[in-house]
Amino acid sequence: MGNPDRSRVIRLAEAQADIPGPAGERAVTVLQRGPLDVALSVPLRPSQQTPHALDEIYFIIRGRGVFIHDSKRDPFESGDLLFAVAGTEHQLEDISEDFALWRAFYGPHGGEVPA
């Protein structure tokens, strides 16, 4: 994971080398600093999500799918960014076989308060 007190490049290939993990994990944490928690995820299909205590961002590295949230079905593809407010029910469906993303949790428990 490296030293969280130093700036650095987190390389996709190096992070992906740790997937699957020893117990079959499909994600690896690459950065933790304060309330920020970033992981590389290469989920199996289907990808089951649960509401989280922190706001969450998905940076889509490759692949495509459908983001289910707030009674909506939004298609996404490589290069897109998805946002799930803390506590929101959400799912990633119909993900392609090559699917990979960076996942970031951040902020206070319960999510950021809108300004």
Mean pLDDT: 91
* Secondary-structure element series: HEEEEEEEE
Lateral arrangement of strands in the main beta sheet: 1-2-8-3-6
Low-confidence sequence ranges: none
Supply the number of helical segments.
1
Distance between the termini: 33 Å
Rounded Rg: 14 Å
Main beta sheet, described?
5 strands, antiparallel
What's the count of strands? 8
Q: What's this entry about, in short?
A:
With 115 residues, the chain is mainly β. It contains 1 helix and 8 strands; from the N terminus they run αββββββββ.
Main features:
115 residues; mainly beta; 8 strands; globular; 1 helix
Report on this structure:
This protein has 115 residues and is mostly beta strands. It has one helix and eight strands. Strand 4 and strand 5 (72-77) form a beta hairpin. The protein is globular, with a radius of gyration of 14 Å. Helices cover 4% and strands 42% of the residues.
Architecture blueprint of SSEs:
Layout: H1 12-16, E1 27-33, E2 36-41, E3 55-62, E4 64-69, E5 72-77, E6 81-84, E7 90-93, E8 100-106
Antiparallel strand pairs: 1-2, 2-8, 3-6, 3-8, 4-5, 4-7
